Description:
Oligomer: homodimer
Largest interface: A-B, 94 and 94 residues
Shape of chain A: elongated
Protein name (chains A, B): Homoserine O-acetyltransferase
Structural class of chain A: alpha/beta
Subunit structure (chains A, B): Homodimer.
Distance between the termini of chain A: 56 Å
Strand order of the largest sheet of chain A: 1-4-8-5-11-12-13-14
GO molecular function (chains A, B): homoserine O-acetyltransferase activity
CATH class of the largest domain in chain A: Alpha Beta
EC number (chains A, B): 2.3.1.31
Enzyme class (chains A, B): transferase
Strand content of chain A: 15-25%
Amino acid sequence: MHMSECLHKDSIGPVSFYDKKLTLGKDGFVLESGKSLPEVSVRYETYGTLNEDKSNAIWVCSPLTADAHVAGWYKPDDKHVGWWDSLIGSGKAVDTDKYFVVCSNVLGGCKGTTGPASIDPRTGMPYGSTFPTITIGDMVHAQKQLADELGIRHFYCVIGGSMGGFQAMKWAIFYPELIDRVILIATSPGFSAQALGFEIVGRDAITQDPNYNNGDYYDKQIPAAGLANARKLAHITYLSAKGMEARFTRNDIRIEHPEKFYSGSSLETYLDHQGTKFVERFDANSYLHIAHATDTFDLATEYGSLENAFKNVKATFLNVNLSTDWLFPPDQSRQITEALLNDGKVVTSLELDTQFGHDGFLIECGALGMAVSRFLGGHLGEVKTTGTPAFHSHKDISIIDSMIPAGARILDLGAGDGLLIDTLWNKKKVTGVGVEKNFTNILGCIERDVPVIEKKLSLKTLESFADNSFDYAVFNRTLPEVRNQRLMLREIMRIAKHAIITFPNFGSWEMRWALCYHGRMPKSPEFPYEWYETPNIHCFTYRDFVRLTEAEHLEIEKIISLNEHGLSKVLTKLGLVNLGTERVVAMVKKA
Amino acid sequence: MHMSECLHKDSIGPVSFYDKKLTLGKDGFVLESGKSLPEVSVRYETYGTLNEDKSNAIWVCSPLTADAHVAGWYKPDDKHVGWWDSLIGSGKAVDTDKYFVVCSNVLGGCKGTTGPASIDPRTGMPYGSTFPTITIGDMVHAQKQLADELGIRHFYCVIGGSMGGFQAMKWAIFYPELIDRVILIATSPGFSAQALGFEIVGRDAITQDPNYNNGDYYDKQIPAAGLANARKLAHITYLSAKGMEARFTRNDIRIEHPEKFYSGSSLETYLDHQGTKFVERFDANSYLHIAHATDTFDLATEYGSLENAFKNVKATFLNVNLSTDWLFPPDQSRQITEALLNDGKVVTSLELDTQFGHDGFLIECGALGMAVSRFLGGHLGEVKTTGTPAFHSHKDISIIDSMIPAGARILDLGAGDGLLIDTLWNKKKVTGVGVEKNFTNILGCIERDVPVIEKKLSLKTLESFADNSFDYAVFNRTLPEVRNQRLMLREIMRIAKHAIITFPNFGSWEMRWALCYHGRMPKSPEFPYEWYETPNIHCFTYRDFVRLTEAEHLEIEKIISLNEHGLSKVLTKLGLVNLGTERVVAMVKKA
């Protein structure tokens, strides 16, 4: 993966690593397999200061081939800063002025923590082929013991991207009481079959290398060719197809080339470089063991279902997927969000647009940083929410408020910057989750601590919500924006017991007058857009809506006519409700 | 890849292969590299009968690891029929009752045609490391000479999927005068950088195998492990992520497994099987040489641009991509269509929905067969076009006809079953291409020989069309179906000199009356849909349209009011055009 190559001057500065030999009982460090390691040493780094009540610790879980060096630099002439230096530091998203940040090298690694290349104290020789199978759970257990020994008993947040996300989920599952927040980035509940396929091929490339020798090569030639080829393959999966297309160029090589089977692409030297660099910095046995831990990580299989895996977690989650990531594809990442939602947990989910594929989690620190900062209670970067001021206005909110009882759980479809849920939470402990498509609005939601799912409104959006998982679904002015209102109403009545729908009435006298008199598509305060660019793709009248509820056998529990114009008020008083209503607020349920 | 496993009884029946030693001059078979082979023998199969005027030959180009055995079986107890048996045979899409079908094994292969494992007559030993670099062009040259020697001088069609598509494109470029039709399936103008990356890794897996010995292994152990691993990797790229997810299952293997680093997925044994099977049937040197020919195939680099590559082709093209194919992704396949269109060539392009990824081209023979059959002039399978009868009615067509001069080139946006272009072609040699999203409508277009591009109407759809590449763009009732009419008009005026737009008038008296009197979203013969499911997402009035053309500085060259109702006719006569017009036909151009 690309190391973030920020300037040293923006970095937290000089840092050190520490090695801690864990204090173990006579059974040593017992692994999930039942086997044990006689001793475990963990390399880690810390930045910032643990505060007096020990409430400001943030634990960073490292991805597959990274290390404990997540921020800062060791020597002024270091070519690289830590691998997440762009996210972690003074005044950055994970602000080391406020938080005590810890990152350790994983168990099984080759960057200071006990792994296959470490000396087995029982033999005085490297473990090699005798190193036992390890799991993501084992990695987390080693980290937990390190935390204990560092005096950290509570975690403001646990953060992990990629395989780091696997660990972060295990943290939340193992120690639900200790963790306030979890941030997952570009991760999934386990590898897809496709990703696993690449893992298998990469693994075989190493184990088929004649120098591999079942893992006992430390006093001989290392399996460099196999390891390099495994890395080349893995590296391709870290990039996006689009990003690769833009980056590499082709030569016309219809004439014979000195290097046999040379493809004629600049990708050749790039991949060679990636392979060579990796062989210099990583041990093949560590790669095999850590990769195997990720291969066998599969929460749904291990716990029976993903919902089951998360049923006891207590943390609030931020789950971020990357648009062009196909190693941990958005759809898989969303499964985490969906399971948490179906468990009634608190989760916010973002869809980060990037062309960098999986590597984006190390590169896209701008948007990601703003979201992470807000999730941690900070305010990094300027955010202008774009919600039209009229929307989720105080009037809307007070009417919707009047319909929703204290303690209800709501789904706000088109949540804007989260004002509705925020207000109802503060007033009467209404919980809920928003669905919103606009990223800056979503940052607004995060800033308000309103859980929000980044999605466009569509039938597909709602598929993943469990039956009756909400008391109220709210469409505040968003129902005209979907493709099929009839199917949408059906879907909503599957998910929520009640629906509260506000919509501008295309049947008001103003609309009728504008169309009849001017012969043009009407505009009004309720319909402020030009016809060719309105988000309202299916407008409808008060009467249309009532007829549709009848056809769908829904009971209108309450229906409120809103109007501002004097004539509208008069018409409504005269009983000409469809004419007099500028906007409708209706609450419906299954009849 | 999966071999099609149709029942023998549907198959063409027993077939034979033939070997032909090409007649070569003293320079032997000269390759594009300048090197030559002293002799070339080609294995091929033929089905059906070459007719008297030799006009019914269909040439099938084979993909990477296939052979000449494309249909039928050799012995009644054969486990498999030919690799495209589902598409080729008596009464099938490529109907051997009508056509004389030929398929040969490619140059460099190991299935009967001269390749690295063949005996070099100069040494009496297999070529091995001395086999020269070959190209896709070389493969086609060998096929052309075979065709010459078989007495075939004209090709009703050349068909190729995957690498077969590479050859088919070269056929069309090398021999433009000889080929009537080209069918390309799941192919591209060259590998994407991502696909090339996998090729590089697979190649290295073979060449790093210690048994490879620079290709001289025929009297020793073969590089089986490397070849198997290359195949495993390639096989993953033939499947879709979704298809793999559905197919393979996971075991919970947190306890140590006898096989070290076993991933716990049924994918392991599947991939092992694919690798082993491949090693039994394919030669590593052939794989390397043929793969290298595909790696270095890149029409845009070779000819300067894709448009340049195709500028002299004369054939009519059918270009089919597969929705989940990520080895030859739809976007890349579309580049072929776009280049052909920008060259003014005749091309129909299909987007075939499949969950089988690239392998779909061997599996999805239902829909594909119906399209191929029609493109070849057949009628395989029943097709019911879904176009509402009112659309592209004879009245519409006669009005549009009156606006378009003979010989013009038109783009029909929402082409239905192609009636408009078909009619105008027959009447006055108007050429053009349709854009249509419905597959059965598209089959209707193909049956009428109307070139059509399968796409939804959107701004993005039109991006790829070159400036001023059409005389007329026609939106027959489809403009209200797009998201932003203003931007759409701009985009259309970039592509075409004139636009002809027909749309239902939301400002007609009927609409106004329905909204005003009933207070409901209006329905009429021109607006036949319920408000919640109408495809018209931005309705507009006659006047709205005129205002928009003014704002966009377009000149309305002609505008026609259509009406059926008596009152509409009266109102129009009274000069109340917006009230009296039920439907508008307008022709506009840049002012």
